[in-house]
Amino acid sequence: LEVMDDKPNPGTLSENSERLFSFGVIADIQYADLEDGYNFQGNRRRYYRHSLLHLQGAIEDWNKESSTPCCVLQLGDLIDGYNAQYKASEKSLEVVMNAFKMLEVPVHHIWGNHEFYNFSRDYLTNSKLNTKFLEDQIVHHPETMPSENYYAYHFVPFPKFRFILLDAYDLSVLGIDQSSPKYQQCMKILREHNPNVELNSPQGLSEPHFVQFNGGFSQEQLNWLNDVLTFSDTHQEKVVIVSHLPIYPDSFNSVCLAWNYRDALAVMWSHQCVVGFFAGHTHDGGYSQDPFGVHHVNLEGVIETAPDSQAFGTVHVYPDKMILKGRGRVPDRIMNFKKEASFHF
Ligand SMILES: Nc1ncnc2c1ncn2[C@@H]1O[C@H](COP(=O)(O)OP(=O)(O)O)[C@@H](O)[C@H]1O
């Protein structure tokens, strides 16, 4: 495609020879069978129908790639919340899942706020959006098994390289029964930080990420994350963490952060194994390397991508770096591993 041709090609021959494996990334497809619309601020066009064509184009490209990706990470918000209003949630999910059937490699689905506008957590758990069956278990390490109380798991597509999917709506008022103790606990957290009548509004907040369309990580999930990262440290693995919500404040506008992003950062920063953190949610995209050398990528959202562009990427992993090959409005990025974290052969 022309869009790719005018960018520098990071995949030179020598790099290709030491390429270990690759994976696809895509975020915020938010499909709905609706005319184009706008975001809440009214400054970004949303292409509800065209998002499906963008997804189909991405799938065709991944299938055609010379080094086939091991898998694709779908970073959440697969269908738009509007589907619920039009009683089209199940139909739209089916349309999008049918598109994914063309993909020749496994897709890992993460859950975003729009999943919970359409479906309850119980529904999602029993749906095709639950890809926990793709997890890898570590024998004799029961502490690395996630509990059923949140949607998170880890897998190893290449020796010594682990992916951890996190549930950023583990603490959330979305998709959960209003009579449950957990709802009450989460509503309390939200109201303590957000006195607005409209809980989706960050207006006047010193911590503007305490809004209803965000969520957070329970202590239980963070303890599990800590245990998996401890295992990875001990076994000299590299880890990429994936979540719908970003956790590093530098990489974009802070309204989109997970509620307790600081707690997640503290866990992550107490280990050396983490090399990257991929998130969606922001639509605008962003990138930052934190002081501990972790690369934070917020992927540009498909829903706000014009029909003549694209928004997805393939990440190629090398012994000493990851190279994001972006398509359309996703920029290419070379992300070097911190020195002590490079693979040694
Ligand atoms: N500043 C705001 N004040 C009130 N409601 C808001 C505000 N920003 C977003 N919302 C509401 O929050 C929800 C999510 O916002 P939206 O921009 O659609 O986010 P997403 O990127 O997840 O689609 C929508 O229902 C939207 O109307």
Please tell me about this protein's structure.
The protein has a single domain (2-339), classed as Metallo-dependent phosphatases (Purple Acid Phosphatase, chain A, domain 2). The protein has ten helices and 14 strands. It has helices spanning 2-5, 13-17, 50-64, 82-85, 89-100, 113-118, 121-125, 181-193, 219-234, 261-269, and strands at residues 21-26, 37-38, 45-46, 72-74, 107-109, 153-158, 161-165, 238-243, 274-283, 286-289, 295-300, 311-317, 321-328, 333-336. The strands form three sheets. The chain has a six-stranded mixed sheet with strand order 5-4-1-12-13-14. A six-stranded mixed sheet has the order 6-7-8-9-11-10, covered by helices on one side. Strands 2-3 form a two-stranded antiparallel sheet. α3 runs parallel beside α5 (89-100) and α9 runs parallel beside α10. The longest helix is centred in the middle third of the chain and has 16 residues, at 219-234. The relative contact order is 0.16. Residues 1-13 have low confidence and may be disordered. Adenosine-5'-diphosphate is lined by residues 39-40, 113-114, 198, 200-202, 213, 283. Adenosine-5'-diphosphate binds at residues 39-40, 113-114, 198, 200-202, 213, 283.
